[in-house]
Write a structure and sequence with these properties.
With 584 residues, the chain is α+β, with helices and mostly antiparallel strands. Helices cover 25% and strands 21% of the residues. Strands 1-6-7-9-8 form a 5-stranded antiparallel beta sheet.
Length: 584
């Protein structure tokens, strides 16, 4: 029977020495008996508070359904079967699961649970809890989870600590990884509560923190569980060092920055380069009480963009999207608003080896050639870059493209054959994006396009976003160094009409579908990279979005009593590895 298994590591008699790993490609970095990951301080002291700002509000502490506005920190409440290491592209190590067996073709996975795993009320975790979690998340979870969990066609429980998931047609290599990242929910608790509803009652968990104070619209307090069952596991050593994590909510980021300047909270992750360069001149920094750090990373940067909604007829023609994209004055915007410190995003995987460059060759070219009929010819040339030339040249080219697409410039307006004007709205969530959107709208007016800008609060924005109720929206995607089947959720035709999915552009393209689906099926790293390059070219030359900018690192400010490990992993600084220690 053992010959049927791909056993990544053998079961070890000592629970703390039996952590095992599953790598998406290749072998795990850490082997059986490892003491801790390299990017932590295993001797970090416990204690103190981490106080962080958040914008907006929250109305639900149920983090397992798509409904409601949820606060940060809910991931700390429930342990997963396995936990990710941040110095590898995609490798998982045992948490609730002590060891795993996986079929050679990854068509099934067996989890052997740790006998000491338990919920905060002392009740042990069992395979029955895992099965319950799987069934409820498959029913109520996010679309990407439901898609993967829906591929499971059989669940076997061998004993209270052993459970096997069998995958049916359509599965890929990443499915077992997604199953391993499943949070284990307490069946005995949720059978008495409605998992399908939003709630402000702190749920029963099992993780390193529990919620001890809830003040909707103001703050959420999490306290470290002193007798946390998994605190000494190698994958957790050096993690979760603060006695309290306090999320403090502000109406907008301006208020949050002023509060940080006055010392109201002690850790801030900045995302606005202009604020970073001009607003961090307050007294606490001058007095040496606050430290500013720019921490490099090598993870794909957040893909932030103005996204076309192809469900709107005006954006259905690729030539129209290319024309409008060309009117985005990136060089002027970067110089004027960002002091020339940002980089224009030219890939769906910026800041990483997954970004396409040059002309496609080898495996990448072979992949693209298979879908030549459904791809624009430009994908076979150099990787996408912003159009050359000054704005007058771009304007002339844009007008030519629009004319080809059936629009004409008449009486200082762009109109179609019916005389209807070309107008649309850019929907924003963050007031920081207004200056860029307004400048873009101004430049569009030069070719007769009437674009307006509207900023709404978080609740309104999420309502519009999940319903795809917008013309153009400023939003983002986040990818890892090991993209997988979430790419289908981002770009695939099958998710274009699923509310709450992340195909914000409404893309429907056979080549994109096939390329996105192929990524999680790559059997090695080289093939994965080639497929990512191919998908990158297809999306960038499809002009489904107008990519904005990225920094390529983390801009962090914190008080001097907040410390971080000397080693930074490839994904960048890991918040959970920070600690408090007086004395600077």
């Amino acid at each position: 029977m053992a010959s049927l298994f791909l056993v990544f590591l053998l079961y070890m008699p000592s629970a703390l020495a039996s952590d095992i790993g599953i790598a998406m490609h290749g072998e795990p970095k850490y082997k059986a008996g490892f003491d801790h990951v390299e990017y932590v301080n295993p001797d970090a002291p416990k204690g103190g508070e981490l106080r962080i700002s958040e914008i907006g509000a929250f109305d639900s502490l149920n983090g397992h359904i798509i409904f409601g506005n949820k606060p940060e920190g809910l991931d700390y409440l429930s342990d997963k079967l396995m936990q990710r290491a941040w110095d590898e592209p995609f490798t998982l190590y045992g948490l609730v699961a002590e060891s795993v067996d996986v079929a050679p073709d990854r068509s099934w996975i067996t989890f052997h649970l740790r006998p000491q795993a338990r919920f905060h009320d002392g009740v042990p975790m069992t395979a029955d809890d895992v099965k319950f979690s799987f069934e409820r998340i498959r029913e109520l979870g996010y679309p990407a989870q439901r898609r993967v969990f829906g591929l499971v066609n059989k669940v076997d429980i061998s004993d209270p600590h052993t459970i096997t998931f069998h995958l049916g047609p359509g599965y890929d290599r990443e499915c077992v990884m997604i199953l391993a990242l499943m949070a284990v929910l307490p069946k005995h608790y949720w059978e008495k509560h409605d998992l399908s509803k939003t709630t402000l009652e702190p749920p029963l968990g099992s993780g390193p923190y529990k919620i001890t104070s809830v003040d909707p619209g103001r703050q959420l307090v999490l306290e470290r569980v002193k007798d946390y069952w998994a605190k000494d596991l190698p994958i957790n050593k050096g993690y979760y060092n603060f006695d309290k994590i306090i999320y403090i909510y502000f109406r907008n980021d301006e208020a949050a920055l002023q509060a940080f300047a006055s010392g109201y909270y002690n850790y801030r992750h900045e995302f606005d380069i202009s604020k970073w360069l001009t607003r961090y001149d307050f007294k606490n920094i001058a007095d040496g009480k606050v430290i500013k750090e720019e921490i490099p990373n090598h993870r794909p940067a957040m893909l932030k963009a103005f996204v076309f909604n192809l469900r709107k007829p005006m954006f259905a023609d690729r030539r129209v999207r290319e024309a409008l994209s060309g009117m985005f004055n990136d060089a002027w915007i970067d110089k004027t608003f960002y002091f020339g410190k940002l980089k224009r995003t030219t890939s769906i995987f910026p800041n990483s080896e997954l970004a396409a460059s040059g002309k496609p060759e080898g495996e990448e070219l072979r992949i693209l050639t298979q879908y030549k009929a459904d791809l624009p010819p430009e994908v076979f040339g150099d990787a996408w870059q912003p159009p050359p030339g000054d704005m007058r040249e771009r304007q002339r080219h844009a007008i030519e493209l629009l004319k080809e697409a059936g629009w004409k410039y008449q009486n200082e307006r762009l109109v179609n054959e019916k005389g209807e004007p070309f107008r649309f709205e850019i929907l924003l969530q963050d007031a920081q994006d207004e200056k860029v959107a307004l400048e873009f709208a101004h430049d569009l007016s030069k070719i007769g396009v009437a674009a307006t800008v509207r900023t709404v609060d978080n609740s309104q924005f999420m309502g519009h976003l999940t319903q795809y109720d917008y013309d153009m929206v400023a939003y983002r995607w986040i990818s890892t160094l090991s993209p997988g089947n979430e790419q289908v959720n981002f770009w695939g035709s099958q998710t274009a009409d699923i509310k709450g999915a992340r195909n914000y552009a409404g893309i429907r393209n056979k080549a994109v579908d096939a390329l996105a689906d192929s990524i999680a099926r790559a059997v090695d790293r080289a093939t994965l990279v080639a497929r990512c390059h191919a998908l990158d070219r297809a999306l960038m030359y499809g002009y489904y979005m107008i990519p904005l900018f990225y920094f390529g690192g983390d801009m962090v400010a914190h008080t001097v009593d907040i410390h971080r490990p000397s080693t930074t992993p490839v994904y960048g600084m890991v918040l959970e590895t920070l600690w408090h220690q007086d004395g600077g």
